[in-house]
Amino acid sequence: MESGTKEEEDVVGYNSNNVKKAKLLSTLTALLDDPILADVPKKPTLSDVDTLISLELGSAMRISILKLDGTSFEVAMMNSATVKDLKLAIKKKVIELEQSKMGHRHISWRHVWSNFCLAHHNEKLLDDGAALQDFGVRNNSQVHFLPYVVSKGSGRHSKRRKHRFFHGLNKRL
């Protein structure tokens, strides 16, 4: 008899949790549709909300990213952010924009970062560990993409060079 009432309480508790969750989601959806909160992503994480709060308090900055096609978008970053943090924020924002426009689309970020780099006032942001403020990036700054080719001195060889190396070994045998 006691186990029957416990099961009923679990079902009632489960239903009330579902109701609470549904109310929370509907409230969150209504809040995100508010024009004042237009810069909040559709599925915000705790770090997104924290960054936006910091932006309002002045301990974060909004950076405009200019793409090669002339369009731009904005990302919010903490004042202590590094170039790597900016790259991750760009990746997240671009994926979010692509999802909203065209559904799932794969972008090879390895290809993007090996052929393009970010620049601020024509100064290339090449060191991922460097703070953005070291390059003069401040609130409302604009960062743009530049074509970038890795120099041969970086220690990386092209596939063609490797291919010629192995091809030469076969001729000697």
The biggest beta sheet reads: 5 strands, mixed
How big is the Rg? Answer: 24 Å
- What structural class is derived from the secondary structure elements? alpha+beta
What fraction, in percent, of the residue positions are helical? 40-55%
Distance between the ends: 86 Å
Helical element count? 5
Strand percentage lies at 15-25%
**Would you list the SSEs in sequence order as H and E?**
HHEEHHEEEH
Spatially, the strands of the biggest sheet line up as 2-1-5-3-4
Write down how many β-strands occur, each being a DSSP E stretch of 2 or more residues.
5
Flag low-confidence runs. Answer: none
**Mean pLDDT level:** 77
| Bulk shape | globular
Pfam families: Ubiquitin_4
InterPro entries: SNRNP25, SNRNP25_ubiquitin, Ubiquitin-like_dom, Ubiquitin-like_domsf
Organism: Hibiscus sabdariffa
Domain Ubiquitin-like: 61-146
List keywords for this structure.
173 residues; alpha+beta; 5 helices; 5 strands
Summarize the entry for a quick read:
The chain is built from 5 helices and 5 strands.
How are the elements arranged and paired?
Layout: H1 2-32, H2 46-57, E1 60-66, E2 72-78, H3 83-102, H4 109-115, E3 116-120, E4 123-124, E5 141-147, H5 159-172
Parallel strand pairs: 1-5
Antiparallel strand pairs: 1-2, 3-4, 3-5
